[in-house]
Amino acid sequence: MDSLCFNFTPNLDSDVVLLSDPTSALSVTGTPQEREDGHISLSNIHFRSPGGAVLEFDKDGFQMVSGSEGIPVKYGHIKYHDVTIADNWDDEHSHTRIAVTDGPTFIVKEKVSKGALSFHVADSTGLSEKCRGLIGQFFHTDAYQIDSTGEENESGQEIGTVVVGDVAVPAVHDYWHHMHEEKCWIINDDDIITLMNQF
Description:
single chain; six-stranded antiparallel beta sheet; 1 helix
């Protein structure tokens, strides 16, 4: 299915389960924090792979925190348990790709000036129907449907709707905060709450 992109403002009292797959023991959670500008974003992301790789992401990059050392391989990649990690930095952003062997691929990005992390599923291969969490619930077969009108708004964005159960909300097809290489269907903050109440 086409990708969805959305913001969600979590409660600051506890970590947010982004994706959890009980079939494989894959788990990704995030720690929300209020920034100096008053916005809430993820300050830490905690990743655990099916094969036991434990990664902690924060404003300084990532750490491999389980017992075994990572083994560097060619072109700046690190092979660590059952994941391959590719980490890229420039002046303003970090971009880390985590590929699980015979499984999904994820991207963690950080906007350095804001200390804000984002989490993206680049390839959902191997995620089971039992996935749950803020993002995981959208990976069930037929979890949602996208209907495009074939029209564009005044900004040149394709217009459509995202349907979950009996509820449809408007969406536009565009680049998400200029952070992803491919366009996705962007859902307004208020509308994503409406959709998630359908799961």
